[in-house]
Amino acid sequence: MKIIDTLSLSTRMFKIRPLRTLLTILGVSVGIGTVLFLVSLGYGLQNVILSKIATTDSLLTLDVISDESGLIKINKESIDRISKLQDIEDISSIISLPAQISMGEFTGDGAVKAVDPSYFRLGGINTDYGNNFRSDENYEAVISTANAMLFNMTPKEIIGQELVLTIFLPKINEKGNEIIKSVKREQKYKIVGVIEDENMSYVYIPLGTIGDLNIDNYDQLKVKVTNNEAIKGVRNEIIKEGFLVASLSDTIDQANKIFKIIQIVLALFGLVALLVSAIGMFNTMTIALLEKINEIGIMRSIGVTRGDISKLFLFESIIMGFLGGVGGVIIGYLAGKITNTGLNILARNFGGQPLDIFYNPLWFIAVIMVFSTLIGLLTGVYPSIKAARLNPLEALRYK
């Protein structure tokens, strides 16, 4: 029997039993769609979260801090030594100090973070409103949304406003005791950007604007290396200097491992629905076998081989599995779009930002199509073998 004839006979199911066939395909589509929906949710959440914390520069950046004893401090001398290491591309420092932040009649406590302009790029820190400052000398500030709430203003309204900072500096007096000295900055800082963070009140300012305070020690360094291969070597060299070193790439690796587990768990939930659909498809193929026993007897009596009979059932199940995969991809994609749209509408109503929390990798769509077709093939194996083994005379007498 020619392939074209086998395909023609296999697709008769759409004419003879159209409703049953479509319902079977729909069942497979729902199972495949559920798997695609849940797994694409896992991939989407992974992309959203990692895109918020990782940039190309930040993945090549090491965070350097002093050890807990504080005996080895980060100062200009240690920065000079680190900068002379091989494969170092850029270094950015930060000084974090407690402060009072004032605007008009409002005053609140917070943290002042004096940083080099490159700190934002190396740390993967982006403003949600406005821009980062790009000069080390201009009196500009980037604040958190917690600060905007403190001054009873929205992030958009507060951009362009000016802050007055009173910084508290730790000092050692003549007796060797540590005291806190307050220094009010006469120059006001113009707000140029806002970072989405409602939990902590802080202000980023250019490091150069507090150069007159003669602060010798830094709280942290961000050290960017030239490439991924250099990260391990540079880290070891900095550790030899007595500092603690962390890398965002380590965090990303751990996060990816966690998300892989989440995706597997979500896929298992979807596979339960797919298993139910596969059972329904197997039931349909078994009933189709019983309905076609007489036809099988006639075909066998006119010379159709056992192999051709087997192909008829295999082709029929493969076609249903493939069409179920196509329908599942459509259902999963549309369900993700509808859900994402609904969540974004809620986010806008509550003042949040719209996000795409569903992501469908093309390779996964291809895999799920192959998987669906394979399920169709497997559910057709038993009926095809059973049909091929039927005795032609008994098949003709079957009622």
From TrEMBL:
Superkingdom per UniProt: Bacteria
Localization of this protein: Cell membrane
Domain annotation MacB-like periplasmic core: ranges: 21-239
Membrane topology field: Multi-pass membrane protein
Entry GO MF terms: transmembrane transporter activity
Keyword terms, alphabetized: Cell membrane, Membrane, Transmembrane, Transmembrane helix
Annotated ranges, domain ABC3 transporter permease C-terminal: 268-392
Matches recorded under InterPro entries: ABC3_permease_C, MacB_PCD, Macrolide_Exporter_MacB
Bilayer-crossing regions: 21-45, 264-291, 312-335, 362-382
Gene Ontology cellular component annotations, sorted alphabetically: plasma membrane
Primary localization: membrane
Keyword flag Cell division: no
Family per record: Belongs to the ABC-4 integral membrane protein family.
Protein name per its UniProtKB record: ABC3 transporter permease protein domain-containing protein
Organism: Candidatus Falkowbacteria bacterium CG1_02_37_44
